[in-house]
Amino acid sequence: MTLGEGATSPQSGPAAAPPADGAEVSIQAQGETHKASPQGLEDLDNFPYNPDFAAPVWAEDYDAEAEMARVNADIDLCAREGDPNNLCAVCDKPGKDRCSRCSHARYCSRECQVADWPLHKRFCAAFAGGGAEEKRPSPQHYRALFFPVFSATPELHWVVHRRSDAREWFDYRNDDVVQFQHRTGLWDLKKEKRVSIINPMHDFGGRRVGHRLVAVCFGSTGAFSSFNPQLLNKSILSMSKPGHIHPALGPIYLYADGRRLGDEGGDPKTRDITPRDIGHIVRFFEDADCICVNEPARYPGEVIPGIRINDLRSAYNAAIGLKTAFDQVNVPLRPASKYDLPIAMAFYLGLSWYIRPGSLAITTGDREPWRDANLRYLGWVYRVDEEAFKNAAGHEQVMCKTIFSRAAFSGSAVVLHGSGKPILLPHLSAFNAYLDTVCAARGVSSAAGFQDFWAQYKQLLGAALEDVPSPYEYEKAEVKDKLGRYHPDFIADTAAKNIDSIWQKILLQMNRPPPAPPAAEARSRSSLDHGPLYRGLFD
Q1: Residue range 82-111, pLDDT digits in tens
Q2: H helical segments located in 37-158
Q3: CB under 8 Å to 310, separation ≥6 — which residues?
Q4: Per-residue pLDDT tens for 491-502?
Q5: Bias regions of kind Low complexity — which residues (predicted)?
Q6: pTM
Q7: Sign of dihedral through CA atoms 291, 295, 297, 298?
Q8: Please, what is the end-to-end C-alpha distance for the chain in angstroms?
Q9: Is the CB of residue 145 less than 8 Å from the CB of residue 255?
């Protein structure tokens, strides 16, 4: 989701579709191509899809026409049943009580008022002061929400929404906007202005909104490589924990408009921004294209735990307030736009670990992608590329190619267990320490070796790890892998077959000699009892 590009899909990249029924399937791994039966997905012994996969990217489900219909249905419903701003600011029950200080926020109960206070206290004084009804300059003025760049405090502004034959506008200039212009050289606001309707990008948990929520931006949220990260919008960043809210570049106004989507003619139906609207807006910035979830109970989807690894040298991370190399986070089960990547060495050791981007920064402006030492093993992944084509006989054929490579992340990465169960920081520390030990001794790496190492590691650290379970706690046949699009045993066996070349590539970037090759019997995951193996696929 990029503000300033209209009411369009979140970030998207079409995912490879499963082969059609009856299509021929071939599998290529490490340069070798092998055909499977034309039964496609129906026979997993011949094609390595994961039957338990439950984490397709959100972009796959986005339907612009359906979202437009949803927003218009909400506007029509509220037109029939009354102003939704008379409802509770937290839920959709009638708001029988008001905030005693500002009188604008409505609540159905004391519980909802207490739940909303961390957010409402940021705006209560503004609604009671300059945004109070008696301060309205004229009947043509309406409250708009302004997120300044250089202050951590959002503001309420009175604006007059005007329209001509060619365009709509209100007076956007204020001290913060002028300072942003001076810092960036973006002098022509008409050219730099981008307008987005945010309702189609987020369903707000099914809550009623009743009007468009329109964002007016003066920068691009994807322009991190062109602009100093210090120009990230500080007031938006202040609305949530570091790394838990969508970053924005430049100042942003938001206002309410009662027109249905598609009804662009006629005068604007501008409305006042209310505390309930502000709740919708903040949830949008937190949840749309969400990387890390601030409030799992509010998130409209399944949430799983993970460990985020952060680049502390990143100017972007410094600007958003990330100050620790590791933190425990909650993330959506379903990633925004790209499948989770299996970590090659983890799968070789019998661990169903995946990695995904942990930051919405497209680039931090560095010349080289971030490859932190903490990712020296975790950052090496398997990608599976599918390509559909017609063979010489005119039959549709699908080629599946596994590619081992070093993933490049920008700012942060999140490590996850395929089951959605928690990975703990000691697990990552022990994983890196074990492989470092193997490298130093030029020994043999194996699942059994890592289990023995963990037992010694836990004993050495004593009470600090007393209640920490084994990294293999969830590596059992009854624990299903939900994150991997491809069967975990397919990935593990591919890693086992190619472990020599994997080590060579990993150690080449570390300028170290490879460890000893594993014994032939250690090359299979079969001893770990993880279900069917794909023996014969690469023979």
Answers
A1: 999 999 999 999 999 999 999 999 999 999
A2: 64-81, 110-120, 124-128
A3: 243, 317, 322, 324, 325, 326, 327, 358, 411, 412
A4: 999 999 999 888
A5: 1-23
A6: 0.82
A7: negative
A8: 44
A9: yes
